[in-house]
Write a structure and sequence with these properties.
The two termini are 16 Å apart. Helices cover 74% and strands 0% of the residues. It is elongated, with a radius of gyration of 17 Å. The chain is an all-alpha fold.
Length: 171
């Protein structure tokens, strides 16, 4: 059984995950508007991933018999600057989410809630992957610089990303 404090914190994380999805949808829209369809695709796949993260927590709360309280989702920005700016903002946002997940693990451990601590391990691994992907793309964007051909190649590469739903075991 989840404590009230853990339940509240997990409900807050659902909000953060849905906001993340909303943010990436806004980045996808911005990319489409600026003619970067590959970037738009990458961010839309990211949107889908974030929604699955929110649902993973939602289902965990439901399976634990905890109360689910959905919160208002903040409006994301509309303008994002250059592709490099977007990915630097993406990395900063993922670092914020990583800290939030780490705080949840700390809370679970303080409360001796080992089931939730184990549940959250998947998110820790996921955040390592998220930050690594962002850093890789930032590196490529810095390498390409202002070269239109380099940006075109990165856009084309990002356009090949497809959404692969995570395994449902443990959700």
């Amino acid at each position: 059984m989840l404590s009230e404090k853990m339940t509240e914190a997990l409900n807050g994380q659902i909000n953060k995950e849905i906001y993340s999805a909303y943010l990436y949808m806004a980045m996808s829209a911005h990319s489409t508007y600026t003619g970067l369809d590959g970037f738009a695709n990458w961010f839309m796949v990211q949107y889908q991933e974030e929604m699955t993260h929110a649902m993973r927590i939602y289902n965990y709360l439901k399976d634990q018999g905890a109360r689910i309280e959905l919160q208002a989702i903040e409006q994301p920005p509309v303008e994002f600057g250059t592709p490099l700016d977007m990915f630097e903002k993406t990395l900063a946002h993922e670092q914020f989410v990583t800290k939030s997940i780490n705080d949840l693990v700390t809370l679970a451990n303080e409360e001796k809630d080992y089931a939730t601590s184990i549940f959250l391990q998947w998110f820790i691994t996921e955040q390592i992957e998220e930050e690594s992907n962002d850093n890789e793309i930032i590196g490529k964007l810095k390498l390409a610089g202002e070269d239109g051909n380099g940006l075109f190649m990165i856009d084309k590469e990002l356009g090949t990303r497809v959404f692969v739903p995570p395994a449902t075991e443990g959700q």
